[in-house]
Design goal:
heterodimer, A: mainly alpha, two-stranded antiparallel sheet, 2 strands, about 10% strand, B: about 625 residues, alpha+beta, five-stranded mixed β-sheet, five-stranded antiparallel β-sheet, 17 strands, about 50% helix
Chain lengths: ~90, ~625
């Protein structure tokens, strides 16, 4: 399950890199204390609750980029119907 | 940095001198040694001079520091000063950093506010996605440096419009790279691949320098989303690496997000209002067509399509014009209303056993400029049927009344002429009253018959070349009696020479008789009525001027309506049909009938008749209901 979360988080970061550009997209992701992110968007390590990390990542991007981030997250999560951001 | 070190050195020297002198002076005072005291005082004075010198140097250094800060900026100054090597500068370093941050924050806020304000101002004038991206991209220089700034708009038909501003002379490959980054972002979000041939690209600003070798070293994209749909992307790219920080980019994201949300809301409002208008248009029983002055169809409701027997897909102006071919000149009507900017009702048209009245109105914008013409097709078939029944009833009744009324008139004339025996004065008075009443009824019946004949198209013009001066003079005795009876002064003025004009003299006299009768009737005794005939370039003009009661301002627009009588003359005799009939005759004769009036001062009626003459055999029909 943790692997799936890691995959989703990495996919979200990579998509944001594609859309926003690497500097800004990585800068936002690297502020999340529970994950370590590589320059290509891969999640190198994840500590703590993976779902919390996912929520933190999505919130950080949504707070920065708004609607486009929501669209990116939705498109990534569409491929993982068993994963939800809700409590 | 040199200035800062000298400040520190001077401070240290000054402090050392002052400390030495202070200790010596204390010792001298303590031991009360006059020689030592004198010497020590001299040292202190010297030290004070040194201290003053140091203070001046410190001031000079501070001034120099401020000048340096102004020149290079707070941020750069902070970067140049290494506080770890010089702890005395830590405070000023922190202050410089704080001021630099605040300065940057204020600049960014000011930029954000300025761009949002511009967007808000322009949103009132049909702001498009392209405009927002253009405004945002165009004002980027104030916040971030760049080599190129580009924006791409995804069009609904799958094509795209790309504009790229070259701030630096980069090579074409650089611009292409920026383009690819936007296309890649679009594909990543929407899955949509836009091929090169479907992208209309414009470059502006600097020129390409194909000798340049650099490629994109730093960039970011700002996507624009409206109603949860990606509509465009701004790309900012630079030759310099690591240029774009999160705070600066964040402002652009805020602006574009805000603008996208605003446009989304406005579009929702417009769609809602449009839906209401569509529902209203669909529910009304009249056909409505609105076309731009350029000939583009703007609105056509279902009823109009049904009236014109158009299929669902036939919505163009060409379809409408074609469906009315030979029945109604839509383009001519549009041209007329566009030129005059006045609403106009056109003669009824008949389509598929139904009758329609067409009214064309100018549609004006906020600058009072016409940009469209709205046509309303009202089904008047039912009204026509009722009117035909009414005309038939009036015609039959009038005919039936006319015979006994004529008999009564004839017998009354015999009685009043003592043809049937002598009558006394009292009997004569009563019979005269009956005769006058009978005359009024005959006038009413004749007017009703005229209206009935006009509306059923039974009056046909029979123009003959007429010397109007002679003709009018020959008819005037009929009306002179009326003026004499009311002790009014009447004159007829005419030019010496006047060409013959082809008019129907009988009908024209009916018009003039009505105007003269009205002038006399609505002018007090001892008043004055003048009729003038004059020759104008393309018509003759007849004016009937009185100094009577005049027509109330608020009722002027109704004066040619059937059965209408102005409030200030309602008590006097009259049917309210005379002017209605007069105008139908005037217009059928190719002329015009109108008036100018001031209540309490008098009225002037104007009648024009074309010098070319009236069209023969023209059937008089009412211009409108």
């Amino acid at each position: 399950m943790e692997n799936e979360y890691t995959t989703i988080i990495a996919a979200i970061i990579r998509k944001h890199i594609d859309v926003m550009g690497p500097t800004v997209a990585l800068s936002i992701a690297q502020k999340i204390p529970t994950i370590k992110v590589a320059q290509n968007g891969d999640v190198l390590s994840l500590t703590g609750d993976p779902k919390t990390a996912l929520v933190q990542v999505t919130q950080a991007y949504a707070s920065f980029a708004g609607s486009i981030s929501d669209m990116i997250v939705e498109s990534v999560l569409a491929a993982h119907p068993d994963i939800s951001l809700d409590e | 940095m040199g200035a800062s070190f000298s400040l520190s050195l001077n401070k240290k020297i000054g402090f050392l001198f002052t400390l030495t002198a202070g200790v010596t002076l204390l010792g001298a005072w303590f031991h009360e040694t006059p020689g030592v005291l004198l010497g020590t005082t001299a040292i202190i004075i010297t030290n004070l001079a040194c201290a003053a010198f140091v203070f001046r140097a410190a001031l000079a250094n501070l001034h120099e520091t401020i000048l340096t800060l102004r020149k290079i900026g707070w941020g750069d100054y902070t970067a140049r000063v290494d506080a770890t090597k010089n702890p005395d500068l830590a405070v000023i370093n922190d202050m410089a950093k704080m001021l630099a941050d605040r300065d940057s924050h204020i600049t960014q806020r000011a930029y954000q506010t300025a761009v949002l304000r511009e967007i808000s101002e322009r949103i009132s004038e049909s702001l498009t996605t392209e405009e927002i991206l253009e405004i945002t991209a165009g004002s980027l220089q104030k916040i971030v440096p760049y080599s190129t700034v580009s924006y791409i708009i995804i069009n609904p038909d799958g094509t795209a419009t790309l504009k790229c501003h070259l701030e630096d002379s980069v090579n074409k490959r650089f611009a292409e790279e920026a383009k690819k980054k936007m296309l890649f972002a679009i594909e990543s979000v929407t899955g949509m691949h836009i091929p090169e041939e479907k992208i209309r690209t414009t470059y502006f600003g600097n020129i390409f320098d194909e000798t340049a070798r650099d490629h994109v070293r730093s960039f970011f994209n700002v996507p624009m989303v409206i109603d949860r749909k990606l509509v465009g992307i701004i790309n900012v790219a630079s030759l310099k690496p690591g240029l774009y920080t999160e705070p600066a980019v964040s402002i652009l994201y805020n602006i574009v997000e805000h603008a996208g949300a605003t446009i989304g809301k406005i579009r929702a409002i417009v769609a809602h209002e449009s839906q209401k208008v569509d529902s209203m248009l669909a529910s009304i029983t009249d056909g409505v067509i609105m076309a731009s002055t350029a000939g583009e169809m703007l609105v056509m409701n279902n009823k109009a399509q049904k009236i014109l027997r158009l299929a669902e897909h036939q919505e163009s102006m060409l379809d409408v014009i074609h469906s009315l071919y030979g029945i109604f000149d839509l383009r001519g009507a549009m041209d007329e209303v566009t030129r005059t900017k006045i609403e106009k009702s056109f003669p009824e048209i008949s389509l598929e056993h139904a009758f329609y009245k067409i009214t064309a109105s100018p549609v004006l914008n906020s600058n009072n400029e016409i940009y469209a013409v709205a046509f309303v097709l009202s089904d008047i078939t039912h009204e026509k049927e009722i009117d035909a029944m009414k005309s038939e009833f009036i015609s039959t009744t009038s005919h039936q009344l006319r015979t006994p009324l004529s008999s009564m008139k004839w017998f009354l004339e015999m009685l009043l002429g003592s043809d049937l025996g002598t009558i006394n004065e009292k009997q004569k008075e009563v019979l005269t009253d009956i005769y006058n009443s009978n005359e009024r009824i005959i006038t009413l019946v004749n007017d009703l018959l005229d209206v009935s004949r006009i509306e059923s198209g039974k009056i046909t013009l029979e123009p003959t070349p007429t010397n109007l001066v002679e003709f009018i003079r020959s008819m005037l005795p009929e009306t002179n009696t009326m003026f004499k009876k009311r002790k009014q002064e009447f004159s007829f003025e005419y030019p010496e020479a006047m060409p013959r004009v082809a008019v129907d003299p009988k009908l024209i006299w009916q018009v003039l008789q009505n105007l003269l009768t009205n002038a006399s009737k609505y002018t007090p005794e001892n008043g004055k009525v003048t009729m003038t005939l004059s020759l104008e370039p393309d018509h003759v003009l007849l004016k009937v001027v009185d100094n009577g009661f005049g027509i109330p301002e608020f009722q002027k627009h109704r004066i040619f309506e059937k059965f209408f009588r102005a409030d200030n003359v309602a008590k006097s005799d009259g049917t309210g049909l005379g002017l209605y009939i007069a105008r139908q005759i005037a217009e059928a004769s190719g002329g015009k009938l109108w008036f100018e009036s001031t209540e309490g001062k008098g009225t002037t009626f104007f009648l024009t008749l074309p010098l070319l003459g009236s069209a023969p055999q023209k059937v008089i029909r009412p211009a409108s209901f």
